[in-house]
Specification:
Blueprint: E1 3-8, H1 17-23, E2 28-31, H2 40-45, E3 50-52, H3 61-64, E4 69-74, E5 77-82, H4 92-95, E6 99-101, E7 109-113, E8 116-120, E9 135-141, E10 144-150
């Protein structure tokens, strides 16, 4: 079975229709924090089940229910999610993670280091500087994971 996982971050209270369209077809959505006020997570849950971590701007009672980090197991692989990659306080490879998902920088990107995929979907919320509005998808199949940045 192949898993298709939508990855979104830094919505800051704005869920663009093009982000929703790009995430359709996902079996799970991971939100890497800075969700912002509003009902972003409920809107995303209309597409697929959602897992989310708390970002630095996520304040208030609603945000306290969200973990700072999360571990997701899909297709026999483990994914570590947090908002700010600079807060990573473990060795993903030693811990057995196939991927680390983060946001915070608003810069989409992916790189494989020591066999671990580091994936940042960028920001799907308000535009910042000259950075694009973007989301991502992860494809997990046969014990492998690959990412794709989508600029809708």
């Amino acid at each position: 079975m192949e898993w298709v996982v939508g990855v979104i971050s830094d919505t800051h209270g704005l869920l663009r229709s093009q982000a929703v369209k790009a995430l359709r077809g996902s079996q799970l959505i991971l939100h890497a924090g800075d969700i912002g006020p509003g009902d972003i997570l409920r809107q995303l849950a209309r597409i697929a089940p959602v897992r989310a971590v708390r970002g630095n701007v996520d304040k208030g009672e609603w945000a306290q229910a969200l973990p700072l980090t999360d571990v997701i197991e899909l297709g026999g692989l483990h994914i570590y999610a947090l908002h700010n990659l600079k807060a990573l306080d473990l060795s993903p490879r030693a811990a057995g993670f196939a991927a680390v998902i983060s946001g915070h920088s608003h810069q989409p990107g992916q790189v494989v280091r020591n066999g671990v995929l580091y994936f940042n979907p960028g920001s799907a919320g308000p535009k910042r500087f000259r950075l694009p509005v973007s989301v991502g998808k992860l494809f997990i199949s046969a014990g492998r994971i690959r990412g794709e940045i989508l600029i809708p």
